[in-house]
Amino acid sequence: MRVLFVSFAVVLIDQISKFYVKGISISFLNLNFEGMYIGQRIPIIRNFFNITFVENPGIAFGIDLGNSFKMLISIFSIAASGLLLFYLYKSRKKILILRLSLALILGGAVGNLLDRAFYGIIYGYAPLFHGKVVDFFNLRFFDLFMFNRIFGSYVFNFADIAVTVGVVLFLFALNNQNMNEKEESAAVGNFLTENKDIV
Q1: 52 Cβ partners below 8 Å, 6+ apart?
Q2: Which residues contact 58 (CB under 8 A, 6 or more apart)?
Q3: Least buried of 9, 70, 81, 115, by fewest C-beta within 10 Å?
Q4: What's 8-77 look like in SS3?
């Protein structure tokens, strides 16, 4: 279960980066960091890659299902994180890439869950489990305004990157596992065919 250190690292990097972007004030530690203002953009690579501070009130790609679904989304995130942790424990003897993929997905899920669960309280704008997810990596491919939304520009965070990389690694691990099982089955089949007289 050493891969849980990967999950912990993802959560730590994700939360530090979000506090850096959004800012944080902790009076008893005499810490007051301003951060960025909503919508502020810092160009990194021309107009293609920017650091842009936005808050996502909903789920992936900024889909907002409304206030009544916020608690449901949080409960789903907690349940999904619990299932990932359980599956990670059950997979503790499987190949590293599979365990690493699960650890990345778990870290990303917990990172965004912390925003939804506590940011509303920490920043004083919403009750428990009604917070917004902080996003700031901004890739702009094109701007297409449709259905009252702008498409072609994607804003995400470290947690989202971890989940995406984790899913890709998970699919790769499953494909690799299936190929190994097919090779083992073929080897057994060849052995049985070649030694049918013995068997």
Answers
A1: 39, 40, 41, 42, 136, 138, 155
A2: 64, 65, 69, 73
A3: 9
A4: HHHHHHHHHHHHHHHCEEEHHHCEEECCCCCCCEEEEECCCEEEEEEEECCCHHHCCCCHHHHHHHHHHH
Tell which wins on pLDDT, 94 or 145: 94
Residue 132 CA to residue 70 CA, distance in Å, equals: 9
The per-residue pLDDT for 72 is: 84
**pTM score of the predicted model:** 0.85
What is the C-alpha separation between 4 and 11, in angstroms, rounded? 11
What are the pLDDT digits (tens) for 21-43?
A: 999 988 888 889 999 999 999 99
What are the tokens at 141? 């491919």
Q: How far is CA 73 from CA 63, 66, 78, 182, in A?
A: 12, 11, 9, 39
The structure tokens listed for 177 are 């596992």
For the chain, the domains span 4-169
Higher per-residue confidence, 9 vs 182 = 9
- Say which amino acid occupies 186: A
Q: Which residues are catalytic?
A: 135, 160
